[in-house]
Amino acid sequence: MIISRLKEFKDILKAVKEQNIFIIGCGKCATKQHVGGEPEVLEMKKRLRGSGKNVVGWTILSSACIISSWDEVLSQNPEIEKAEALLVMSCGGGVSVLSANVKQLVYPALDTESLGGVCRDEVVKEQCGMCGECDIHLFGGLCPVSHCPKGMQNGPCGGSVEGKCEVDERKCVWDEIQKRLELLGRLEVLKDIHEPKDHSKRRCRE
Ligand code: SF4
Ligand code: SF4
């Protein structure tokens, strides 16, 4: 699941100069996180209208990042043709896919933060930083790229106090990694030195 949060409304208004807007929500991750499902799209429509914009229509795509046929979307939502701009309440993936298909300007209503998941109905954030070189098994299944604000690959930075990260409120992931590896009987892997990640691997390829 892609983790996103709603932008501040004033920032959306500042960016969207056009008058006639069509809003697109996403039925997958954005709906699950309550940032781009039907209630949020309707709230956005209300706020835009209250700010003097003309909302020509709205829809929730089953998945904003997977469009099998743009013609089909258009035939189901002909009001899109009347819009000068689309406001998309999905992750950046959905915004990019839609931008490649439409003739209007596409604005993101969300800020995409990280790759996460759902555990016992609760959304868990920052599970993967999409480094393109997964070695999470070496850290007991806890990814330091995504869980440590400094992305420390070879042990803790030294700033944690009683298991708490020095940067913010989270637990120090290295404290957790040590506990997990101990539980797994694999503490010896902590002696391995990890080379820096090959950042060329996270680039998009044709
Ligand atoms: S090691 Fe890389 S690919 Fe694997 S979970 Fe961490 S960021 Fe994601
Ligand atoms: S305290 Fe732990 S989690 Fe926080 S920055 Fe340092 S190593 Fe990373």
Helical stretch tally: 7
CATH topology heading of the largest domain? Rossmann fold
Strand order of the largest sheet: 3-2-4-5
Number of strands: 7
Helix content: 25-40%
Bound small molecules, which ones?
iron/sulfur cluster
The percentage of residues in β strands lies in 15-25%
Taking pLDDT < 50 over at least 5 consecutive residues as the criterion, the unreliable ranges are: none
Mean pLDDT: 91
* Highest-level CATH class of the largest domain: Alpha Beta
How does this structure look, described?
This protein is of the alpha/beta class and 206 residues long. It has two domains: 112 residues, Diphthamide synthesis DPH1/DPH2 domain 3 (Rossmann fold, 3-Layer(aba) Sandwich); 72 residues, no CATH class. The chain is built from seven helices and seven strands; from the N terminus they run E-H-E-H-H-E-H-E-H-E-E-E-H-H. The chain has a four-stranded parallel β-sheet, with helices on both faces. The chain has a three-stranded antiparallel β-sheet with strand order 1-6-7. The longest helix has 13 residues. The two termini are 23 Å apart. The mean pLDDT is 91. One iron/sulfur cluster (SF4) binds next to helix 6.
